[in-house]
Amino acid sequence: IIGGYYGSSIRRWKIEDGQQEGPPMFGNGSIYSVVVAQDGWWIVTGDRAGNVTIWNAATHEKVCELTEHSSSVFGVDISSNSTKIATADHQNAQIFSFSSGIRLLPPLRHILVNGVRFSPDSNRFATVLHNEGFRVYSTHNGDVLFNSGQNGSVSSSLVAPLAWSSDGQQLFVVNKGKITHLDLSKSLASEWSIHDNQHRISIAFNDRFIACAAGSSVSLWDCVSCKKISAIITHTAEVKCIAFSPSGQYLA
C-alpha cells in the first residue's frame, strides 16, 4: 500500500505485517494525490506545491519532476500501458509523456478540477470539477467527448470517485445523494438517487456491481439494471472504505 501524507512524505507499507518498506520519499509539500502504475514499477504523486513526481517503486528514487502546474495537484493517473500521465489541479488538466515528461497537449483549462482518470484503453480520460460537473476527453487530441455541465455538478471540494467499465464505454461518477451513469456509446447520462445525501461517498466497483458507502450505511447496485439490489447494510460507525473480492462474491 502506498500512502501520501500532509507532512510531504510518501510511504510504502507491506500488507501482511503492516511494516514500512524502504525509506520514505519526500515531495515538495503535502501530498494530495498518489497513483501506482499497473505494472507496479512506478509511483506518481501530486503535491501542494504544484509538482508531479515520478518515483521508482523499488528504489524509492525520484525519476522525474514535472513543474507545469501553478497550484496544488489534486489528481494524478497513469495510463494502462504506462506511457502517459494525466494530472489535474484547480485550474486545468494536462497530459504528459511518461518517459520524457514532455506535455503532449495544451493545458485543458477549466476551474476547480478535483480528479482525473484514464479509461482502461487509455484512449479517453475523465475529469471531475467542483460545481462544474464532469467531462470526458480524447487522450489523443484533447477534444471534449462529453460535458455534463452543471447537471453533473460535484458539490464537495473533495475528490469525487470516478469508475470506468472495463470496455471503457461506461463511466460512473458518485456524489452526495446520487450516482451519475454515462453511456459513452450513446452519449447518454442518467442519475440514480442513492441512500444518503449528507455524507461524502466512497465506492467499490467491479464492472457489474457498485457498492456505495455513506456515513454508517452501504447500498449495492446492479450496473446493468441500474437498480438497488439489496437492503441497506447498516453499521454502528462511519464506513471509511469498501472493496469487492476479485470474484465479486464478497464485499468487505
Please tell me about this protein's structure:
This protein is an all-beta fold and 252 residues long. The chain has a single domain (2-196), classed as 7 Propeller (Methylamine Dehydrogenase, Chain H). It is 0% helix and 46% strand. The chain is built from no helices and 24 strands. Strands 20, 21, 22, 23 and 24 form a five-stranded antiparallel beta sheet that branches. The protein has a four-stranded antiparallel beta sheet with strand order 4-5-6-7, with no helix packed on it. A four-stranded antiparallel beta sheet has the order 8-9-10-11, with no helix packed on it. Strand 18 (178-183) and strand 19 form a beta hairpin. The chain is globular. The two termini are 17 Å apart. This is Anaphase-promoting complex subunit 4 WD40 domain-containing protein. InterPro entries: WD40/YVTN_repeat-like_dom_sf, WD40_repeat_dom_sf, WD40_rpt. Pfam families: WD40.
Taking Cα atoms only, what radius of gyration do you get, to the nearest Å? Answer: 18 Å
Q: What integer is the average pLDDT? A: 86
CATH architecture: 7 Propeller
What do we call the CATH topology?
Methylamine Dehydrogenase, Chain H
Which residues form runs of ≥5 with pLDDT under 50? none
Distance between the terminal alpha carbons, to the nearest Å?
A: 17 Å
Provide the β-strand percentage band.
over 45%
Shape field? globular
Largest sheet: 5 strands, antiparallel
Give the number of helices: 0
CATH class: Mainly Beta
Structural class: mainly beta
CATH superfamily: YVTN repeat-like/Quinoprotein amine dehydrogenase
Organism: Pisolithus tinctorius Marx 270
Protein name: Anaphase-promoting complex subunit 4 WD40 domain-containing protein
InterPro entries: WD40/YVTN_repeat-like_dom_sf, WD40_repeat_dom_sf, WD40_rpt
Pfam family, one: WD40
